[in-house]
Amino acid sequence: MTALICIDWGSSNLRAALIEDGAVVDSRRSDRGIKRLQGREEMEAVFDEVVGGWADRVQNVYLSGMVTSRNGWVETDYLPVPATLDDLMRGARQIRHGALTLNFLPGISQADPPDVMRGEEVQLARVEGAGLRVVVLPGTHSKWVLLDGDKVTAFRTCITGELLELLGAHSLVGKLAEPGPSLGPAFDRGVAAGHETGAIASVFAARAGVLLGQIRPDEVTAYLGGLLIGIELENMIRLLPGAGGRPIQILADGAVAASYERACDLCGVPRTPTLANSAFDGFSKLLSCKGVPING
Fold it and tell me: For the chain, what are the domain ranges?
């Protein structure tokens, strides 16, 4: 039986899976993301806690995400585009931790315009097919990626999720917001306005709309969410080479997936069926690459 551990360790959370013969047989989650930890010793302690009970069944562990960043456990290089799945595995940096071999995967970079990703490249591995495809990974920092087969040829980042959080917590626009549904007519109006203008200047309309009685306080967050996603769609389809007119593949789950699906449909942006955002499925695809050490 072939067994290994895969860990997607980001800024906020950690997700780990024990994989045997290509199937996930156990998984664990922790809120001890990299931004909550100070130094390598704390990271080692969290790692040992998370993999407890698994470690004696494996020899190799694969890690991706911010754990491989400058603020992480082991910093790995960024591979410049174009980069393939095989390139990622060949670019892994290995260290020993007790009886385990830890394989820290690299990120991907782009020089013009400057951009980087860490972690999303593993999720991209589960997107199958030939030819050019546009893949969208919504989140705090949404990634729009142009794939040619299994090769990342270009990508752009849009900080949609971070902007929504900042507006809600630290702006005059957000001060008027009250709890309410994330989807609905206000979301739809926001998407339409954002996609039509593609401009951040539209954001203040959320505050003005409340003051003028056009938007209810419990609609502010939905309106802002729709507005920012609408702006993202307009910007990224225009700015990512080859994205215009090509169906997009969304990698997301739950409410986030529903928001982007709704926005695409409202804006007439063609899309293929959404894929769940699973780093573990991506790891399984990556580990099928030639030359990957799975037994030491």
Answer: 3-126+279-286, 157-267
